[in-house]
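Bit of a strange request maybe. I'm writing a small parser for structure token strings and I need a real example to test against, not something I typed by hand. Could someone generate the tokens for this chain?
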Amino acid sequence: MTARPFLKMHGLGNDFIVFDARETPLAMTSALARALADRHTGIGCDQLIIIGPGSSPDAVTARFWNQDGSESAACGNGSRAVAALIGGAITIETAGGVLNAEARSHGATIDMGIPRFDWDAIPLAYPMDTRTLPLAWDGIEKPGAANVGNPHIVFFVDDPQAVPLETLGPRIETDPVFPDRINVGIAALPSRDRMVLRVWERGAGLTRACGTAAVAAVAVAQRRGLADACVTVTLPGGDLVITRADNGHLFMAGPATLAFTGSIDLEHFA
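Reply from user aminoacidic:
Good idea to test on real output. This should exercise your parser:
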């Protein structure tokens, strides 16, 4: 039996299994990720992260797998966890793009880049105005869409708690209009600098926090002229601060916490 070290981390309750594979490579499959993520028979997590060597000394790669075994191009909370673990100023190379990050006290700040709004960047099945999509499900309508490394749609409502996201989320996620599936955000804006957000995360379901969802929701709100340059986003797990710089880049700041470390025999799950 060969035990493989891992870390269990979370960002506002959005939890991760993290394997540092910079020195010892680790092959991951959908089935293995799904087994490890199982909260009853595995370690349990929303996402699994593998950190690998980057293209330069101050860079790392990060790959993300969802609870259902699907691979995700990006993960905002997970990227903060990687940055906090490595420390200092680093570059995180992901399938969704290259992120510049800096570890802070109890967390990190991530430059999430410039959001993409073109319909084929989301992507959608056919051309639509992503500022206000002519779509509706069960009384909630006219969402906005953005891709910030992951695809998101965002609905603005009076009370996010009143929306049955646990049943509506999976229907919207898998609607044929979204060929790569979609993350679903339900948001309210009590003021121009505050947002309340609930998220159905593609491949993971209801989550206590989703960093890319917070960035996408603020991007859509700012595009519609509803929000200021700096917005505090309150998710079930806590607060993230999203700030738009003069160059259009969106920065996400928030906590990342090491919960515990351990080791596991991966052959047991093969």
